[in-house]
Design a protein that fits this description.
- 34% of the residues lie in helices and 21% in strands.
- The chain contains 18 helices and 28 strands.
- The protein starts with 6 loop residues before the first helix and ends in a 6-residue tail after the last helix.
């Protein structure tokens, strides 16, 4: 990645186009979280490689807005670039819009690439800029000067192995069409890659960590067209898709297909997941029905068959992690020199030994001591720490398997720990257990439950700046909506937690310059009880891997939390012990020993 080389040419191009400010978001035409290289213009221009952030360039100023997960990384990567780090207070607030409106004069023009802006995003922009008399120019200025811009990815698209798919294309298309009809739509446009992969039972590798492929999908009442770059789907798979009523067309052909829609068509689309550029050719007569994609809610509710595969994957993943963590723990304690990069290598190598493992589900976060205080830290050959036989090592990692996606964080004491480390370790665990044990009425949403995980930290006047949980896909994106567990946002939609949803539970506590703690399991929502007050739900913990009880301060865990932990460790031992032998099994047994009464 060339650092900052593009700012001067970008400014010249802005001047030529009469543009006062250029917004460079983190987005692609599919509103993805992780981007194909072709759309990584923000990283190319700024040198900042985090997964979230917005760059704004004016004639005499460049600022990068990102949230607290990335403050330290951004400070390091933006050093000497002339780009100012603008610290966002919350991860999901577009504070740069108000900044822009206040800075620019009426009549100024602001440019943004229309293939990196959703319909909802464009409205948000206009709502801020229009009252200030600022004009919006939908043009990709960075793209015009990016001579080394990567091409579209060419990796093949494959069918999700039928042994794991737990569904048929015909059934998924039929249920989506039923919801289309219910909404009063004759057509439905999908641009979000995980929705398309789920609906078509296809998988790809166009985006790092997410088994998806670049495509748009257009459904009518009988047929569907999948717009995908040529050469990615072989003849056999194309024939199977054809038999299910899915025709193939070139990825670039979506505009022409929308232009050809009849004037009386009614198009269902999600304004937050479709780019302005994609809709540019839509005939004016076509009526749009804006709503969430029906597949997003359906995809979030995992079937009992999917959960059967997922539980098996969790046992495999857990066994791999026990082998990895035992190795790291014993080697460091024996005085061997290991670094954070070795942690990633060992974890990935052990996962790769498991059957049906495909790839990591995100970049491993291995943060030792002070680096553990950076929630999205990533060790690099230039910046990494050596592990020592003291203090805490935080490891947040995950795997993509044919039968499910994993995401787990564990914190290991590599030797002596301080009283502060032990108290923080225990309070975060108390919060994770409190939420894991929760029972709640059907219809309750993540923001209603979020405080359960924070209460033990609040008690100690501590908190953390990220959400508590995100949905997870089934051999799909590790971050998936529509549900989430985070503090309430004014005006934010409340999505009920429903049976079958798989969500992470991951509170944390970070002390900059000292250490960080985060404990994370994945949990499936399931029915718990019926009473005169209605249906009540609970979480089934899916993740299988011990917690380190050596840095635990038992006095800070109440009896209910201690018995939850003992029961969890008993289950981990039962499920993982048969998969391990020798030193690995002995280490697991020591880690799963019940707490002293």
């Amino acid at each position: 990645m060339t650092h900052h080389s593009g700012l001067c040419p970008l400014r010249s191009h802005m001047q030529a186009r009469g543009v006062a400010a250029c917004i460079v978001p983190t987005a692609d035409p599919h509103m993805s979280e992780y981007l194909p290289a072709r759309w990584q213009s923000r990283a190319w221009l700024s040198g900042f490689t985090g997964s979230a952030g917005t760059l704004i360039v004016t004639s005499d100023y460049a600022g990068l807005w990102t949230d607290s997960r990335y403050f330290e990384q951004a400070e390091r990567e933006l050093a000497s670039s002339g780009i100012v780090l603008m610290k966002q207070r919350v991860a999901y607030a577009p504070e740069h819009l108000a900044w822009l409106a206040a800075r620019l004069n009426a009549g100024a023009r602001v440019a943004i690439a229309p293939d990196m802006l959703s319909l909802a995003g464009a409205r948000q922009l206009r709502a801020t800029l229009d009252p200030a008399g600022i004009e919006l120019l939908l043009e990709d200025l960075p793209g015009a000067i990016w001579s080394t811009r990567p091409a579209l990815p060419t990796a093949p698209v494959r069918a999700h192995d039928p042994a794991f798919a737990c569904a048929t294309r015909a059934a998924r298309l039929a249920s989506t069409r039923a919801q289309m009809r219910q909404a009063g739509a004759t057509q439905h446009l999908l641009s979000s890659l995980d929705d398309i992969a789920w609906l078509t039972l296809l998988r790809g590798s166009d985006v790092e960590y997410n088994p998806v492929f670049l495509a748009h999908l257009l459904l009518d009442t009988e047929r569907a067209t999948l717009f995908v770059p040529p050469g990615k789907i072989d003849a056999t798979l194309a024939a199977a898709l054809q038999a299910d009523g899915i025709a193939l067309a070139d990825y670039a052909g979506i505009g022409a297909a929308l232009a050809a829609l009849p004037q009386d068509a009614t198009l269902l689309l999600d304004p937050a997941r479709v780019a302005v550029a994609t809709l540019a050719t839509l005939p004016t007569g076509v009526r749009c029905i804006e709503a969430g994609n029906p597949s997003t809610a359906a995809k979030a509710r995992k079937s009992s068959g999917e959960l059967v595969h997922w539980r098996e994957v969790m046992a495999r993943d857990g066994a791999a992690l026990v082998r990895a963590f035992r190795q790291i723990d014993t080697r460091v304690r024996a005085g061997e020199t290991l670094g954070e990069l070795d942690v990633d290598e060992i974890v990935c190598a052990e996962r790769a030994r498991e059957t049906d493992f495909i790839a990591p589900s995100f970049a491993t976060i291995a943060g030792y001591a002070a680096n553990g205080a950076l929630p999205h830290y990533r060790a690099t050959p230039a910046h990494h720490a050596r592990l020592q036989a003291r203090g805490l090592l935080l490891v947040d990692s995950g795997g993509q398997y044919l039968g499910g996606t994993t995401d787990i964080t564990r914190v290991w004491a590599l030797g002596e720990t301080t009283a502060e480390e032990r108290a923080d370790f225990t309070r975060v665990l108390a919060g994770m257990i409190a939420l894991s044990r929760a029972r709640f009425p059907a219809g309750a949403s993540g923001p209603q439950l979020d405080a359960l995980a924070r209460a033990p930290l609040w008690q100690a006047a501590a908190d953390y700046g990220h959400g508590t949980g995100h949905g997870v896909g089934y051999f799909l994106n590790v971050h998936e909506g529509p549900q989430g567990i985070r503090p309430p946002v004014p005006g934010g939609a409340l999505v009920a937690l429903e049976p079958g949803m798989v969500t992470s539970i991951e509170p944390g506590l970070y002390r900059p310059g000292r250490h960080g703690v985060r404990h994370e399991n994945l949990a499936a929502t399931r029915e718990a009880a019926q009473s005169e007050f209605g249906t009540f739900l609970e979480f089934e913990t899916l993740t299988l891997c011990p917690f380190d009880t050596r840095p635990l301060e038992p006095a800070l865990l109440d009896a209910a939390a201690r018995s939850w932990l003992d029961a969890y460790h008993a289950q981990v031992w039962t499920r993982l012990a048969p998969r391990l032998s020798g030193a690995d099994r002995d280490w697991l047994e020591a880690r799963c020993t019940p707490l002293a009464a």
